[in-house]
Design brief:
Elements: E1 2-7, H1 11-16, H2 19-23, E2 30-34, H3 45-50, E3 54-58, E4 68-72, E5 78-81, H4 86-90, E6 94-99, E7 102-108, H5 116-139, E8 142-148, H6 172-183, E9 186-188, H7 189-193, E10 202-203, E11 215-216, E12 219-224, E13 231-236, E14 248-252
Parallel strand pairs: 1-2, 7-8
Antiparallel strand pairs: 1-14, 2-4, 3-4, 5-6, 6-7, 8-12, 9-12, 10-11, 13-14
Length: about 250
Amino acid sequence: MRVISYNVNGIRAAVKKGFIDWLKTNPADIICLQEIKANKEDLPIADINAVGYEVFSYSAQKKGYSGVAVLTRIKPDKVIYGNGIMQSDAEGRVIRADFGDTTLINAYFPSGTSGDERQGYKYQWLDEFFAFIKDLRKSRPKLIICGDYNICHQAIDIHDPVRNKNYTGFLPEERAWMDKLFANGFIDTFRHFNKEPHQYTWWSAFANARENNKGWRIDYINVTEPLLQSLKHAEILPHIKHSDHCPVFLEMSN
C-alpha cells in the first residue's frame, strides 16, 4: 500500500498546474488531499476517475474553504465523513476510510495564522481530535493519521527555529501536543526513515522561500505501533509543485 498526503491549496488551482497529469504517473494507491476548497460538484471527478482513482470528498459548508478528499485505487470497506464534532465537520476537516483492519484518517488541522480566536480554536480542535483518535483506537488499533497538521514538531522541522519560536505552527503548546501524540504510540513515519535536516513540506510564497528551501515540515503520515513492522519507505516529494505544499509519501507492506 502506497499512501500520499498532500495539501493542494485548492484542487482546481492544482489541476491548472498539472495535477491530473501527475495522477497519470500512478504516484500512490491512496492519495489524501487537504484544503481542496471545492464542493463535490466542482471537483474534477471524471478526470480523476479516468486515471483509475475513486473519489471520496468532504467539503466545508463555507464555499472555497478547507475540505478533504481521498483518491483511491483500492476500494475501501467503509468511508465515514467527519468525526462527529460540529465545528470540525462544518469546516470539512476529517474523513475516514477503512481498508481491511487498517483505518486511514485524513485530516486538515486548523491554522492559527488569522489571529487569537482561531489559535484558540486550534487548541480546542487538537484536544477534540486526540480524544477522537484515542477512542477510535480501542476498536481500530491499526491507524494511519495523515494530513496537514499545521505544526512543526521539532527544531529540525523548520528552517529558522529561533526566529519562529513565537509563531503559530511552532508554539510550545502545539509542539507539546505532537510530543503527546508520539508518546501515545504513534510513529512519525518520515522521521522513522530519515533523520536529516532541511526536509520541508510547505514554503511561504514570499522571498523565494521554496527556491531557497526555507520551509516548514507540517505535513505528516503517522501510524500506530501495530503498523510499525509494515513500514517500508517514507519520503517527502518537494519536486512536485502544484501547491505551496508538497506531497509526503509512505509505502507499507500488505
